[in-house]
Amino acid sequence: MNLILHLLLDAAVIFGLAYIMPQVDVKSFGTALLIAVLLGLLNFFVGWIIRFPLNLVTFFLLTGLIRILVTAILLKLIDRFMDSFTIVGFWPALVIAIAVAVAGTLIDRSAPSKRMVESGYVTAVPVLDRLQ
């Protein structure tokens, strides 16, 4: 369920930022959803190859920043392969990567998976208990 939420939210962030930023062009929400799927697959299969040497150089102290940087690089890579998605420059890709990271963090904190709760990453506190 969290995977579907992540993909939909990432697509919405990409599509929304494309509407706001003139340097980014996405043809439709379906294209944004395809970009989100490709971004997830590339992060899973290729991202670690790029992240690992960079994390070694920084002694794993800047892992979050490197993840955002690699996501921006992967967005530019997706831009090269898709005609219906364009990003002019690296800074808009970095802004989208930051927004996707923030949105993913919000999803993980608001709807934690069972594995996240068991590992101690987050606690499973019902929403009503948070309001009191």
TrEMBL record:
Superkingdom of origin organism: Bacteria
Listed Pfam families: Phage_holin_4_2 (PF04020)
Keyword annotations of the record: Membrane, Transmembrane, Transmembrane helix
Transmembrane region(s): 28-50, 57-78, 84-107
Matches recorded under PANTHER family: SLR0284 PROTEIN (PTHR37309)
The protein's name in its UniProt record: Phage holin family protein
